[in-house]
Every structure is written in structure tokens, then in C-alpha cells.
Amino acid sequence: MLRNFMKRPEAGAFAAFVITYLFFALATPGTGFVSVNGTAGWLNLAAELGIVAIPVGLLMISGEFDLSIGSTVGASSMILALGTNQYGLPVWPMVFLALAAGAAIGLANGLAVVKTKLPSFIVTLATNFIVIGATMGISRLIANVTSSSIVASDSAKFVFAARWGQANISILWWLLVAFIGYRILSRSIFGNWIYATGGNLDAARGAGVPVQRVKISLFIATGLAAALVGILQGVQWNSGNATYGMGFVFQAPIVVVIGGVLLTGGYGSVTGIVLGTALFGVISSGIFYTGWNTDWIQLFLGLLLAAAVLANNYVRRLALSSK
Amino acid sequence: MKLMKSVLAAAAVTLGLGATSPALSNEEGPILVVSGPLSWPFFAAVKKGFDDAAEIFEVDYQYIAVTDTSNMTSDYPRLLQQAISREPRMLLVGEFFPDGMDPLIKEATAAGIPVLIHNSGQTLWEGNGSIGFVGEDPYQMGYKAGQIQAEAGVTTGLCFNQVPGNPTVEERCNGYVAAMKEAGKETVYQTIGTGDATNPQAMTQAIKGSLQANPQIDGIYTLNAVPAMSALRAVDEVGRKGEIMVGTADLSNEALLAIKNGDLAFAMDQQPYLQGFMSIQIAHQYLNYGLHPIGHVKTGPLVIDSSNVEETLKVNKEHAGVRGAS
Question: Where's the Periplasmic binding protein domain (chain B) (predicted)?
Fold first, then answer.
């Protein structure tokens, strides 16, 4: 049974998560890192990243990248801000407009990738600049600002920014996205298509998998998820900002890879991505509970990430080699 | 072409025009502005100042800035170099990264391009041949914040820097730490990973962690309005609202409302709009009449606290972008 578990993509991430969590639990005695509030803290952090990381992971399993998620987060928060604050429009239609914009950016990415056959790494990197540039340019034309307040209704505040104690509702959104991602990847034909597309594109096409549709759908999903995060952050902080989300551009692929997804596609699991994201949340929040000199934080973060990926790789090879 | 220029220059010198009418040196070139990234609400307000003054004084100018803020230390000298090679009529520069930018400014002034520094570079403008400086001293801004907190009885102050590696911003923390130390107080200097500079959630969790690890902290100074909001949430989450004094550099509507509610103690305004507006005004007067202020024009810090927050909020509502974020 253990052997079977070890063969799963998330085994390495699980091991790395447990070790890292124990490390921080022991290194930060009496600071409340393991308390309910401390846990809510790293979960809040992981949830926002996790919501984009799951569709990004599915997309990477299908063999493509999406680096435009960062600017999509900022764009959707600014759509909410400009609509509600500058034009005084109600928040809900703006929420749907922001989601539609995210989906449209995803659709544009998907079409560009399948029509031009250019690497999605480059296509979406270009989109990332185009979207943040357009967001800033348009925001300035409309309101002469690149960050603006958001006026949200009580219902919108509940759906996107409710809190129980110190736990944000974004954690529930993360679980919902994870559940949907899991159902799609592991319990549907579409999931098989995703694996097939990323595993061997020509073979998949030969077997009748609509590879273009798979890729375009997944690009739309990443755009939607990024827009959702922009809405969550915007409503939570009462303001939109064109630069929100820029950190996710690389953090999302990082947690996906920690979670056991192969950079080359065709292999990975939603559980692994969730664990990878949780690991990232624990590291980047826990490190501050140690009270160490924060100049070293990125060095430490980098080392832990490298260790996590190596452990991941090692566990997987060990599991696959021995009968 | 080169010969032509030297002949003209010689003629100008003989006619006694060389020193008094720099405006005649290159009348055709544009006024170029090398300034901060417009994704920052702060520089949005600076640009609004440039725009308004340009309209009033009927000056054409071009704003040059980075869009990707991850490599600013090397990108800014490059942008400046490109601007100089266009032989501008006048150059208005934010000297954010002196190591790379100062030698270029010296080259420009040596070549006869009039340069005016704004925002950053207040200790350098005299040495590099610029005609003046409009802006604030980041060290003094931090120092003032430290003084305010020390006087209010803060014993351990945390300076939270969300953009480690930016020398100008870091100076604010240096000033804060110096003022606190002088008053015999303890300080903690905290940074965050560069990928999280625009993630308010990550900043909240970072500050929360530090507050948990170091319960003596009873004062926080942030270097921008967004981390100020994160700091307020972190204070709330560790259950120490009212016990920890939070102050910030720079403004936003959110920050102003928090001052009004009594959650945020103060915000330091370096009045970015004035930096842009006065730069164009000085450029206009210099190019046309050879006039300019002597010494540097200080635009900050103006301390905004409960005494003047209402007025500031009103301006922010009526004139979006003048005081920073809206």
C-alpha cells in the first residue's frame, strides 16, 4: 500500500510538506505558528496562489504554460475598482465583467498558441506585458490612477472577503477549485484528454482527442481563476491595483512543479498541486515566525524549494524503480 | 555637422550668449523626463503634476519609465542613456540609482544639456552639474517617522521594507532606525521576498509572523500605503489593535480613511504632485528666462494625521490622482 502511494505524483510533495511543517513547528516555539490563527495565516496565503495554481497545473500537464496570470489578477481588480469607484456601477455586474475579461484573455492565449504553434511560454509572457500595459494605460485614461478604491456591496463582501476568525473565504474557494480540478482531471474523459495531450500530442491527436479544444479550455480556466483571485484580493483589500498578482507569474509554476507535475507535461495530480501550494504557504509564512534576519529569506526559500523538488524527484524514482 | 556645431558654439561664445542663454543651445530637442514606474500610485501623482504644468506652461515633454520593475537598478541607467542620446532640450531625472545614473548625468551636463533632478538624488545634484533638485530626502522622511513614534512612547519599532534592494526606499528605514536609536529605542528591520512586493496577503502574513516572533514590537513603520494596510490587518490578527502604533510613508485613500478611523497614526506625504509640477515650471522658466531656484526645493515630508486628514481626503475625492492613489 505504501509502495502504491509512493508511486503517486503527490508522494514527494506530501513528504516535503510534512518535513517542512514539522521543521517550522519546532523552530518557532511559542509564536503561535501552529495555532488556529497561525494556520489560518498560511492557508490564506496559500489559497490565493492555489486558486490559480490548479488550472495552471492542469495546463502544464497538457504541455503548456501560462505566464499571463499575473497581469490578469491586476486587470480584474482594476476592472472592479474603475467600475465601482469611478463610474459608480454596482459591484456584481463588474464581477462578471472581470471574470469575462479573464476568460477572454485565456481564450486569446489559447487561440494564439494553437493557431501559431509558438511556445506558450513566449505567447503568454507577451500577453502578460500586453495586459498590464493595457490595464495601466486604460486606468490612467479613465481615472489618472493605476490603483483605485473598490466599492463592494455586503453580498459581494461576503462571497469574496468573508472571514471566520482569521480564515478567509478564499480558502473555501481554493477547496472548490481543487475539487473541480480533481473531478475533471481524475474522474472525467476530459482529464484523460489532458494527460494524453501533454503526454504525446501526436498520439493523442491520432486517437481522436480534440487537443486544441483541451488547450483552449484550460487557458480559459487559468484566465478565469486569475480573474477570481483579482476579485478576491480587490474586495478583501478594498482596492484594485494593476500590479497585484505579479508574484504569481512564477510562484504558480513553482508550486505546480513542487506538487509533482512534470515540466514536460503528461504527469501530475491536483492533490500534488494542493500540497505544493500548502508547502509554499508554510515556508513563506513560517519563515517570518522564526524572527531571523529577513535578508536571508529568499536564499532560504530557494534552498527549501530546491530540497522539496529533489525529494520529490527522489521519492518518485525510488517508487518507480523498485518492484 | 560636428564642425557646424562648433562654429555655432564659437559664435555664441563670442557674442556672449554661451552662459546666459542655455536655451539657445538646443532649441529643437524635446524635454525628456526619466521618472518612476507609473504602476506605482506615487508616480502616477508625479506624472499628473508634470501633465498639469505642461498644459499650463504650454510645454511639450515626454515621460520615460520602466514598466517591469524587477530590474530597475540596471534598467534606469539604460533609459537615461537613451534619453541623453536623443539630445534633449532639457532633462528632468529622478536619480533613483545613483551608482549607475550619476556618471550619465555628469556626461549630460558636461555636454551642455540642462538637467533638473526630482524625487531622488537630493545629495547629488550639486556634484553632477544639475541646476537643482525638487523632492524630499527619504532619510529625513524616515527620521521624522522615527521621531514621532519615539515621542509617542514606542519602545521597539519595526521598519517593514517591501522592496529590499531599492536604495531610496531603504534610506527611509535607515532614517527611521537612526531616529529611534537616538531616542534609545529598539528597532527591527524586516524585508520580504521580491516576488511578494505587490501581494498584500503575503505582506500581512510576513508582518504577522514577525509580530508573533517578537512580541516586544509596539510600533510599525511601512514604506508605502499598501503594506500599511497589511500591517493594520496583521496587528488586528495578533490581537494587539490599539497597542501597536502604525505609521507609513506615502498615501492612499484607504490609508487616509484608516487615519480618520484612528487605526493608522500618520502617513508621510512627500507631495509627489509638486515634484512633477514644479519640475516643469522650473524647466519652463529656465529655458525661457534662465531663471531657477537656488538650492533644493523641498516637497516633503508633510505629516498627515488626525489633524489634517479630512482636508486631504476631500482633495483626494475631488481631484483624483493629485495626492496619490484614490
Answer: 36-288
Residue B44's alpha-carbon distances to A199, B251, B324, in angstroms, are 47, 12, 7
CATH annotation of B2-136+272-293:
3.40.50.2300
Q: What's the pTM?
A: 0.81
CATH at A292: 1.10.3470
Best to test chain B binding among A43, A125, A145, A300 (most B CBs inside 10 Å): A145
Chain B closest CA to A210's CA: distance in Å?
36
Express each pLDDT in A238-288 by its tens digit: 889 888 898 899 999 999 998 989 888 888 999 999 999 999 999 889 989
With CB atoms and an 8 Å threshold, state whether A288 touches B207. yes
* Cα-based distances in Å from A75 to A136, A234, B1, B135: 9, 10, 49, 31
E strand intervals along chain A: 147-149, 163-164, 167-168, 239-241
Residue A42 lies in a domain: yes
Q: What percent of chain A has pLDDT over 70?
A: 98
What cell was used for B262?
484612528
**What is the model's pLDDT at position B12?**
43
Q: Which residues of chain B does A142 touch, with a Cβ-Cβ cutoff of 8 Å? A: none
**Domain membership flag for residue A110:** yes
Measured between alpha carbons, how far is A269 from A271 in angstroms, rounded to an integer?
A: 5
Q: Measured between beta carbons, which residues in chain B are less than 8 angstroms from residue A33?
A: 209, 212
Number of folded domains that form chain A: 1
Q: Hey, which CATH number is domain B138-269+306-318, 3.40.50.2300, 3.40.1080.10, 3.40.1010.10, 3.30.565.10? A: 3.40.50.2300
Q: Which residues of chain A are within 8 Å of residue B209 when distances are taken between CB atoms?
A: 31, 33, 41, 285-290
A166 vs B189, B191, B237: nearest CB: B237
ipTM given for this complex: 0.83
* B contacts of A28 (beta carbons < 8 Å): 212-213
CA distance A151 to A80: 8
User: Is residue A322 included in any domain, yes or no?
Assistant: no
Contact B213 A289 (CB under 8 A): yes
Query: How many Cβ pairs closer than 8 A exist between chain A and B?
Result: 146
Q: How far is A21 from chain B (nearest CA, A)?
A: 15
Give me A116's grid cell: 501559431
In a domain? residue A76: yes
Cross-chain Cβ contact B209/A237 below 8 Å: no
User: A275 lies in which domain range?
Assistant: 2-26+34-316
Q: How far apart are the C-alpha atoms of B144 and B146, rounded to whole Å?
A: 5
Interchain pair B209, A287: CB under 8 A: yes
Same fold: B2-136+272-293 with B138-269+306-318 = yes
